[in-house]
Amino acid sequence: MSEAEASLQVELDSGKRVKVKSANVLLRFAKPEPAALMAAAQALAAEIDLDLAWQFAPEGDFHFSDLAKDYFDAKAGPEQQVAALLRLHEAPHYFRRAGKGQYKKAPEEIVKAALLAIERKAQIAVQIQRWADELVAGTCPAPVREQLYRILFKPDKNGPEYKAVVEAAKRSQRAPLDLLQAAGAIDSPYQFHWRRFLFETFPKGTGFPALQAPEIKDELPLAPVQAFSIDDSLTTEIDDALSVTGLGSGEIVFGVHIAAPALAIAPDSPVDKVARERLSTVYMPGWKITMLPDAVVQAYTLIEGRDCPAVSLYVTFDEATLEVKRAETRLERVPIAANLRHDQLDESVTEASLTGEAVAEYPFAAELAFCFRLARHLKAQREVVRGKPENFNRPDYNFRLDGDRETEPDGHETVTITERRRGAPLDLIVSEAMILANSRWGGWLAEHGVPGIYRSQASLLPGIKVRMGTKPLPHAGMGVAQYTWATSPLRRYVDLVNQWQIIACARHGRTAALAAPFKPKDATLFSVISSFDGAYTAYNDFQHGIERFWALRWLQQQGVTELDASTLKDGLVRADTLPLVFRALGCEGLLRGTHVRVRITGIDLLTLDVHASLAARLDDQAEAPADEGGDEDDEAQAAAPLSLAIDLGDADGAAPTGTGTGTDSPPAAPAA
């Protein structure tokens, strides 16, 4: 429209006028109108053969107008020149920019490589469309099935399999999980949960390298006791046993004997590296993934009929008052007289038989009676420190699956769920003995200046959680001055680490700090804590999730349509006879603790969700106090919609979418 010394006024095809620096002008023209020029140039540019243009182009730098004259006509006008400019600009694999309006053709080898890449990209685009078509039609392509868990949870968003699922989900307007299930990619909800866990936690598989259990070279004395363990029948990692000597003498020596793999396994040895990688045994109904190979476990487990190497804590009590007289730790071989089993004895080992009100017809009756008396005494002492009694209203549950347990479950087994209330006599005996050992050994390490891995809790106020660290701090929830895990070295790596430190104290006494494998402020201890916390949380989350799966399968197998439950908060209810927390419509306004009957209207084994509604109120109970687990545990046990990493906004910028224990006392190993 006008031109000054250093700038021009230009009218756009929209009618807007703008000021442009002269240095930025590539072409001046009077005719045709800008809109007409661009329309004609764009149509003409599409007809330019890039291979031919590349062959005609000079070897050195050239101006786009020069190419237009060589390609079209020596009198090429604005339309031809703009067409050449547009075509050059959109083909960087043929022509490189060399300045203002200047270009230079790419070397032949670069052009060939770029053309191959473009061809591959086009082929991939076609493949993505084919896979998307198959998914929409209800068939899952093999490559998508093979990448299923990566697509859903850790996707490569540039991968063709991922893009095919995104495209198919958008075209079919279905959630990715629903789409894949309908296409047959997920044929077993159980395998979906199991394979997802393996994909996220054991990407290299669950097999062990070929390892032999190291021999214990120490000449250990034989303990003058007859020890017994208390576990479930299917427990193979028997970490702990108990003994009682001196009954009727006025002084009773109570022994806690812990399997001693740390006497043989050295830090950084091949077996240790395997244990440190896994960090804990993973338990689930019908199966488990052990921290150590079975051959290694069997070398150190406290099996009956053997004199087993052990780290033993002996605490001498006054028989009448149960006052502690002394305590000592020994490294020795312990005769294991029996492996007692919860599931075989829980019905007969009752409070009445242990207190003399009923006949005790089971092995070690006198010893168990003392253990029960001591356990109640120790629990009462801890409750004084806690400031309130332990309130465990929730039972524990055992899951048993039919079939041969030499193989993994497939999700179709018949499940039996039985209740074992926390605080039952045998459970109380074992838990209090382990608390005693873990607390005393934690204090013993501190006395010798030897670091360990501790668990602490600053107070019982809501939101104050248990933390792991290297300092012996009080554990308010347990009611002890310090607490460490050291009683399960065959199934928890933290216990194995602490056992190395305890053995150093037993061997070297006051000089143990110099001989212990881990020194104060050792970075390895902090690394173990960090790794263990993450792994243990993942394992527990999976165990809770897969137990929820089997609880829902039990509902289906039994044809249950109604359940009695107690209300929690925000519409959550807890089933009376199952380990199941879920939301029930109509329960949102009821006080906590109200007893209700809920109607099951739907079960989703893939998302582990329960659809339920209030059927009837069974009482007018006022709000009941929460148990030790608290509301956070309640919410954690209620299934949330399955969280996926797939994002339907990847293709067009749409919004992302997906699909819709409170104590540190060592639990009895699950039945599986």
UniProtKB/TrEMBL annotation:
Start and end residues of each RNB domain: 219-508
Biased composition (Low complexity): 637-666
Chain segments carrying region Disordered: 622-672
SMART domains on file: RNB
Family matches, as InterPro entries: NA-bd_OB-fold (IPR012340), RNase_II/R (IPR001900), RNR_Ribonuclease (IPR050180)
Compositional bias annotation for Acidic residues: 622-636
SUPFAM superfamilies tied to this protein: Nucleic acid-binding proteins (SSF50249)
PANTHER family to which the protein is assigned, alphabetical: DIS3-LIKE EXONUCLEASE 2 (PTHR23355:SF9), RIBONUCLEASE (PTHR23355)
The protein, known as: RNB domain-containing ribonuclease
Organism: Pseudaquabacterium inlustre
